Amino acid sequence: MRTLYTFFRSSTSYRLRIALALKGLDWQPHHVSLPRMEHRAADYMALSPQGLVPALVEDGQVFAQSLAVLEYLDETYPEPPLLPKTAADRAYVRALAQVIGCDIHPLNNVRVLKYLKSRWNLTDDDTNEWYRHWIAEGFRSFEETLKISGRHARYCLGDTVTIADICLVPQVANARRFDCDLSAFPLSVEISDRAAALPAFEAAHPSLQADAF
Ligand SMILES: N[C@@H](CCC(=O)N[C@@H](CS)C(=O)NCC(=O)O)C(=O)O
User: Whose Cα sits closest to atom 20 in ligand 1?
Assistant: First the structure.
């Protein structure tokens, strides 16, 4: 029995949907609506005290933090691997994943944007500018890292999908939703679009989730 607490538009939930699909693992969704604040409801907070999606429940154990869950899934269900063989390559794809997971996404999370509006009276235009600023800064470093290291091929590292691609695709989707200009990051976009066309990535797309609106 495996349940994913997920919201269709959540890019961190999207990461786990991709990984579960790549591994061919069945799961049932428990939809948590962020607009309806279901992630702060007492029953969900009791399950996952941070009050953020996603959470994965497997055999009665709760797993939070999508990057940690990606690694849990990879260690528990090794095929196909989401991390490369050597320690140096693993460090490289973890670094790319963390540019997104640690240095872009947290600054642009819903609660941050809401706090900017409620506490500091920022307008929608201001918060959109904030959002686009951190996208541009994060993707600049992601793109430069890809270029300088020269280790990409079809995907961020060679021809095999890794957690770097799993983090990249949802972040590009979100950036597009916020009308960010990604023209300065052609390599990142090209790799993302290629990965997004894979069946596992397509199945995980927000628009195909039962809670999509
Ligand atoms: N570092 C966490 C972040 C989880 C997270 O922030 N999820 C977002 C959706 S993508 C969320 O629940 N946001 C609710 C909010 O900001 O109030 C992870 O990777 O799982």
Answer: 65
